[in-house]
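$ ./design --mode recover --in tokens.txt
reading tokens...
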């Protein structure tokens, strides 16, 4: 169930009342805690919180770097989280690494997912 809405308000308006209330509650928590420099937008058919291309245009897929996303799917509601780590030049990338570099102090959280693991660990 992918939305074609162009705005967050449009996305919320097309949801059934119970889902709109639940998604709106989670959205409030995300927006209240969103770090400076990120934007809320509609991307990939869901509400996304992303690094704007005006801030960081050199992404590997020419799309904004997603920080988190919020979506109502057919049988569930989901919060998607993305962990971005620096590339060799120090700029962020969302390509997966097995372990973040020890000198990483610029981007993303201290959490990372290890290959083959279903858990997320913190350094």
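writing sequence...
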């Amino acid at each position: 169930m992918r939305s074609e809405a162009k705005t967050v308000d449009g996305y919320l308006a097309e949801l059934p009342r119970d889902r709109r209330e639940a998604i709106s509650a989670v959205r409030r928590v995300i927006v209240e805690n969103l770090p400076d420099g990120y934007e809320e937008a509609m991307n990939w058919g869901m509400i996304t919180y992303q690094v704007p291309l005006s801030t960081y245009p050199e992404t590997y897929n020419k799309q904004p770097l997603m920080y988190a996303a919020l979506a109502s799917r057919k049988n569930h509601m989901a919060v998607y989280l993305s962990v971005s780590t620096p590339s060799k030049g120090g700029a962020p990338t969302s390509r997966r690494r097995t372990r973040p570099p020890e000198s990483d102090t610029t981007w993303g959280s201290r959490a990372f997912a290890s290959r083959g693991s279903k858990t997320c660990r913190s350094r």
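exit 0
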